[in-house]
Amino acid sequence: MRVSACLLLCLVVVKCVDGQTVSSPLAGFLQTVVDAFPVICDVFFSVFGEVNETAFQTALSAALRLVDLAFPAKPLPRVPEPWWGDHAKRDTSVRRFTVHFSDEMITDLRHRIHNRRNLTHPLHNAGNTYGTHAGYLAHFLDYWANGYDFGAREDWLNSFPQSITNIQGLDIHFIHARAPNPHGKKVLPLLMLHGFPVTAFEFVYVIQDLMEERDDCDFVFEMIVPHLPGYGYSEVRKINFSSNIEEAEATYKIGMAPYQMGIIMKNLMLRLGKPQFYIHAGDVGQAVGDAIAVLFPERVLGLHTNFPFSTRPRTMAKLLLGQLYPPAVVEAQYEDRLYPLTARLKFYLENFGYFHMQASKPDNVGHGLDDSPVAHASWLIQNLIMATDVAGERLIDGNLSANYNMDDFYDSFTVHWACRSMTTAARSYAEALAVHQDPLSMSTGKGSYTVHWTCQSTTTAYVEALAFCFYLYCLQCYAIRLNNYFNRTPTPVPFAAINFRHELIYQPDDFLRDKYPNLVQSNTLDFGGHFAGYQEPEVLADSIRTAVAKMEQFHGN
Q: Cα–Cα distance between 93 and 172 in angstroms, integer?
């Protein structure tokens, strides 16, 4: 088994011949075997003899050189900036915006909750392992209808100044908060980008913290916190609940990939007079922020994230080969966050069904989420539990109440419900992988390979391993094509990372430097999860502040 694993890992990661230069997938695979054979030998002897760390590092370096040759960074082509609206009207004004939960919307929501069917009884001792626990879901819905104070929460959200402006045909909503500056310190623009399934209001506590002037900082922040296109009040649908008719335009055009969101965010900052700016981002927002840093490095003074990762081919090679000898790629205290890969694969298979659904058929689930508060809450609560600490799923409430002020999540749920934005938010996953619609999200070449392979029970272990390697080789050929330009392209933008304990992905600093060579700060913590803006706002704000100070030094400011 270890021999099979060794062969598998070596062959999958070392070299992928371009689909246009080989006559068949099999020819490409065999060429890979030939090219990789010396590396395979080095890795084999370093692992299956007494492990020689020096020999393994030498073999790993050789494998990475092959990967770099096979997957060179490509110059980015000219990037289009399309008009997303259905009308040609151009309005450059910036208008004040106020959150309003209308009586019609509240009445409609309560009616749907009160007239729901009885939920199916949960299995004994299953907690949330089969999905959102019916008992907790009933409690959540009852509070949403009868306990959640719509008026008070509306006032809370409106305590943060907000505006809306039209960028490329879409109305983009954003919080615009300026820290007091009585001592005339320099003002640094900070663009903050949220993810799924929350909204821009994920950052309200971080904003509060960053609004405070600190004696040890020679700068203050001006924060621009937009809803991403398709989320909340950006690309909003104004619904007349009595007639159930949409009264405002929204984009119905294919192609709102993360890099297109990034272009809109860049243009938003230019609209506000910010030619250069810092970025903090997480989740979907990290894909958007990364695209801005790759496309417009001259605009981005620095990128900070609580969702740091690299998907460059050389990083994937380190990840896979590191399974053979983890000390070569990760510190012992963090090894369990990365390996064994089978445990990570199990986690993703058990918890990322939502990702596959939203990345393949988002409208199927989106229609239900926008129509039924039961579906809306059930779908999203499971995401919150999984991304906070999957160990909590055995508890009835998923351990959410111990980690959050749940009204914050009700705020996000209510904004999405009022805007009917779950379908368009879910589409952001499909657009991120829209290889058939967007030439920048795919590689040139013949496309993916389809493999049909069966092994008889009498097949030797060696041939089974070779067959499995061939199959995964073809999958790798396909996977590397996704978002090809952005995966292969590092950015010189200064980068900072904070790794919370229960984040969905962990990568060591050496992995991150593949994508972000100018890593100025990295902290790894033993607490916290994916929704750091709600769970650990002070820690997140402090990380942003210290990172920006180091980035200012990087720039000589």
A: 12
CB-based burial label for 535 (10 Å; 0-12, 13-18, 19+) = buried
Give the Cα separation of 386 and 380 in Å (integer): 10
The answer to whether 146 touches 159, Cβ cutoff 8 Å, is: no
- For the domain bounded by 94-313+346-436+488-554, which CATH number is listed? 3.40.50.1820
Count of other CB atoms within 10 angstroms of residue 38: 13
How many other β-carbons are positioned within 10 Å of the β-carbon of residue 475?
A: 14
Whether 535 contacts 341, CB under 8 Å: no
First to last CA, the chain: 55
Residue 511 structure tokens: 């992995």
Range list of β-strands (E), 141-195? 162-167, 170-178, 186-193
- Catalytic positions, written as ranges: 283, 429, 530
d(CA 360, CA 362): 6
- The span from the CA of 364 to the CA of 358, in Å, is 8
* Residue boundaries of the structural domains of the chain: 1-70+444-481, 94-313+346-436+488-554
Contact 106, 117 (CB under 8 A): no
Say whether pLDDT at 380 is over 90.
Answer: yes
Pick the most confident of 98-102, 182-186, 320-324, 443-447.
Answer: 98-102
CB neighbours of residue 125 within 10 Å: 7
Angle between helix axes 25-48 and 461-481 (nearest 10 degrees) is: 110
pTM for this prediction: 0.85
